[in-house]
Design brief:
The protein is mainly alpha-helical. The chain contains 28 helices and 7 strands. Among the domains are: about 85-335, no CATH class; about 480-630, no CATH class. Helices cover about 60% and strands about 5% of the residues. The longest helix is centred in the middle third of the chain and has 32 residues, at about 380-410.
Length: about 650
């Protein structure tokens, strides 16, 4: 595709302003919430290296885990000897985001000519990053995980391959694989297809497949899992708690996002030339092959190793390319001053990521056919069509604004509880309007206005930096009390299994350094832990009454009037006893940590300040199961015959 280029390098002021705006929006959109999401699991892997005698008893580790496939926990364990965990994960996340921004820019420099890179870079930093199912994964995640560093390494490899620096590209892919094999596998597949599109001799790589199959047949690990089906218990539990592994569990919104990315890649492959076209085709073919393999090997055959390989993760890199090409299309349409077509692009993007269903498809078809349609339309019709597209985007935005305002109201208009400001910038059209508006103003202005705009950007950047660290009070408090097994007073036995309500595994692993009896996060690595399903199911069933009552208590507290504190809540004797009573299915926890003062005797308590709570001091109490059984009558929990 042809687009105007800038023949002279931009002045330093332009570079500084462009970089500042991009990074400001990146940190505004990708807020940091502490050691959360998958960062919890990698923290656990690192702590297990330091406390093997304790954490080897944890549900997440007792049946094996994913830590054996990555170098990352060893690096984190080494760093934890030298820096506080809270600071390590915060600054590790910030550096990872900067690394991603730099690697994306370097990749775009290799793929696109000068003058066509800034808007694609901004699109990568600001447009939706989610891939896969349920919007729980995204590239450039604001969490300290190996994905955050493996992804930029893969992007560097793409840039180096495009520049024909084969050895350095291979080194980047190898390093990415040492950090996160699954993300690197996606890049390897797309890179292989890119090479194959240029030279069919790369088909010889397929000779590796029968070799891998032979290793699986003779039982060499991990290839033995190629022909090992998930047992019924693991299959059922994985289907329930890790539905993203199975395409038949994906929602319509997930499938339409994949479809939109595929449509963008196909359109780009028809419009672009050279390496950009080859990468588009490679990403499109890689996405199709990966989803087909996932459908056959995982959804249909239920094979263990393919489930763990998570072929659908190829979507992360396909989505990266799609968002970059959206930026290229924005560049083309704004340079041509084709505002109706720009409105159609904004509407298709808005519908694809904001409205369930396939309403974006006809809009995308009109956009793709615009060169043929435009000459047949009168100027007034083109204006009306562009205005209708803009109005539709505005209506979707008003609906979105109402949703986030309601969430903000339920959070009592507290930015710490609900980041209303950040939510505004996650709406694609808002970010695009800011970027395109400032870009147009910059191009039409002189050096004096440039200096003024740069000065105005500084407080926005400072605000984004101050708002970036959005850790909830509980996360801050837990991270501030790392390695304090005496937190509740008595130091628990190293063999203790502790259930901590309303807190992630960070509370047990990092703070009191004990095994976590049960947390939903521990099930994230289920496919890497053969035999874990039965144990996990037994613990889930045991703790279900207590968890359901705790959820009702949280709901009652959230819905209480602003002017009055919530009524004191307690877990029923029956639910407490079921949590602690011995059974043939699984041993009970040794201790419970609850945010409620129970009639049973407590072994200790820990309090911290939470400005969003009512009252602003929250307390967790430590209970021993032996005390609960001694003090609680043996009655069945509600709903249990």
């Amino acid at each position: 595709m042809n687009a105007p280029t800038i023949r002279h390098a931009p002045d330093p002021l332009t570079v500084a302003a462009a970089a500042l705006l991009g990074l400001t929006l990146l940190f505004m959109v990708q807020g940091y919430f502490g050691i959360d999401h998958d960062a919890v699991l990698y923290l656990g892997e690192a702590l297990r290296l330091r406390l093997p005698g304790i954490l080897d008893r944890d549900l997440f580790f007792v049946h094996g885990s994913q830590g054996q496939y990555t170098l990352f926990p060893h690096l984190v364990a080494w760093a934890l000897d030298r820096i506080d965990a809270g600071a390590l994960f915060l600054w590790g996340t910030a550096v990872g985001l900067l690394f991603f921004a730099a690697a994306s820019w370097y990749a775009l420099r290799s793929l696109l000519p000068s003058g066509q890179r800034w808007l694609p870079w901004m699109a990568l930093l600001c447009l939706p990053t989610a891939y896969g199912a349920y919007r729980i994964f995204g590239y450039a995640e604001p969490y300290f995980t190996p994905r955050l560093y493996a992804e930029p390494l893969c992007l560097l490899a793409i840039a180096l391959l495009t520049r024909r620096h084969w050895a350095r590209a291979a080194a980047c892919l190898l390093l990415a694989a040492l950090l996160h094999p699954l993300q690197a596998l996606a890049a390897v597949l797309i890179a292989w297809l890119w090479l194959l599109l240029g030279d069919r001799r790369w088909l010889h790589v397929l000779w590796a497949l029968p070799i891998l199959a032979a290793l699986g047949l003779v039982g060499v690990r991990p290839f033995s899992g190629l022909f090992l089906r998930m047992d019924p218990a693991m299959q059922q539990l994985a289907h329930e708690v890790t539905g993203q592994l199975f395409l038949d569990r994906w929602r319509t919104a997930d499938l339409q996002a994949v479809g939109f990315d595929a449509a963008v890649l196909l359109y780009a492959a028809r419009q672009f030339a050279g390496d950009a076209r080859r990468w588009s085709m490679g990403a499109l073919l890689g996405l199709g092959l990966a989803l087909l393999a996932n459908l056959v090997l995982v959804d249909v055959l239920r094979l263990a190793l393919p489930a763990g390989l998570q072929f659908w993760r190829v979507h992360w890199l396909a989505h990266w390319f799609a968002m970059a090409w959206i930026g290229v299309l924005l560049q083309r349409d704004t340079a041509a001053r084709d505002w109706p077509r720009l409105g159609l692009l904004a509407l298709a993007l808005t519908l694809a990521y904001g409205v369930p269903g396939w309403s974006w498809v006809p809009v995308a078809l009109v956009y793709a056919g615009w060169p043929r349609l435009q000459p047949r339309l009168r100027p007034v019709m083109r204006v009306l069509l562009g205005g209708a597209a803009a109005l539709a985007v505005l209506l979707v935005f008003f609906d979105y604004l109402g949703q986030i305002r309601e969430a903000f109201r339920l959070a009592r208009f507290q930015l710490l509880a609900f980041p209303f400001d950040r939510a505004l910038f996650t709406f694609p059209a808002v970010t695009l309007a800011v970027v395109l508006g400032l870009g147009a103003l910059w191009r039409r202005s002189g050096r004096v206005v440039h200096s003024a705009l740069l000065v105005l950007l500084l407080p926005f950047a400072a605000y984004a930096g101050l708002r970036w660290d959005s850790r909830p009070a509980l996360h801050r408090a837990l991270e501030a009390h790392s390695f304090q097994p005496e937190l509740f007073g008595p130091v628990l036995p190293e063999s203790a299994q502790v259930y901590w309500e309303q807190a992630s595994s960070v509370a047990n692993w990092l703070v009191i350094n004990r095994a976590d009896y049960y947390s939903p996060q521990q099930l994230s690595g289920l496919v890497f832990s053969p035999g874990a399903a039965q144990d996990a199911r037994a613990r889930m069933d045991r703790m279900r009454p207590l968890r359901e009552e705790a959820d009702r208590c949280m709901l009652a507290a959230a819905s209480s009037a602003d002017s009055s504190p919530p009524a004191p809540c307690q877990i029923s004797d029956a639910a407490m006893r079921q949590a602690c009573a011995p059974s043939a299915d699984s041993p009970p926890p040794d201790y419970l940590v609850l945010p409620y003062r129970q009639p049973q005797p407590a072994r200790g308590a820990w309090s911290f300040r939470d400005p969003l709570a009512t009252p602003p001091v929250r307390t967790f109490w430590l209970y021993a199961c032996r005390d609960i059984l001694a003090a609680t009558p043996a009655v069945p929990p509600r709903g249990v015959p």
